Amino acid sequence: MKLKEFSTRTCGKWILAGEHSVLRGCPAVVFPLKSRFFSLKFQPRPGTGAIQLESEGSHSRETEGAFWACFEKACELFGVQSEIIEGEIKIESTIPAGAGLGASASLCVALSRWMADLSGNFKNEISVKARELENVFHGESSGVDVTVVSLEKPIRFMKGAPPEGLSQLWSPKFFLSYSGVKGVTKDCVEKVQAMARTQPVLVSDLDGKMKMAVQLASEALALPDSVGGNAERLQKLVKAIQMAAECFSEWGLCNSEVQAHMEKIKKCGALAVKPTGSGQGGYCLSLWESDPPEDLMSVLIPCF
In terms of pTM, does the model score above 0.70? Predict the structure, then answer.
């Protein structure tokens, strides 16, 4: 196996609706977040007998631990002997970890691309391998995050089925804002899975509600401009976000910090707000009829 230079760049992601329920076969609507990225570069240095890792970017330091947690597993998945890799690895990330914006997915896809290139195998299975790799973080990955990061386009995702392109005829004023605390995806997934075992009827009802949120959101995005006004599509989106937020609340994934943050954003004029990602922290998604107040823009990330 010959070492060679390699470079790749992956984006972040955000979910409009479908979190958690997607693990039980429900759909999700998910988008790439192209304003945030992770990059990986490798420069071989044969004969040094070591790997040197350098990091830069606003969130690269917090990604170093995750990188090493995945590196050996990635080598194993792709049949690469880690001890033969000698050289310099440079990573750069602007995606915060534990925030629901796809930090683990962007890392797993980048590593999978590198290992597929290095081994010469599995080039048609990068998303599949990246999903296996993401289990390191999620316990059980649905594959939704790695799929949208791999494709870099909006999709309607269902576990075990090919992703569908999303019909989007307009770009709502969606923004992301940090709740002030990190979330732990694996803990949140395990909490909902435990609830599914002990309260199956409740979780089934919540899955149905989240499925309806996905349907309403999909319908709203597919509605064209209307001469008589666009109230219908905005109303559908508001309802979809409210329903998804109710699911997070009933799953017990809206702690006091997240709840306080969502209330603050709504008081500033947002039509609806929900967690995006696993919950219990990280970022929240808000929908606005017009541009948010100027003094709030510094803490908001535009989704488009």
Answer: yes
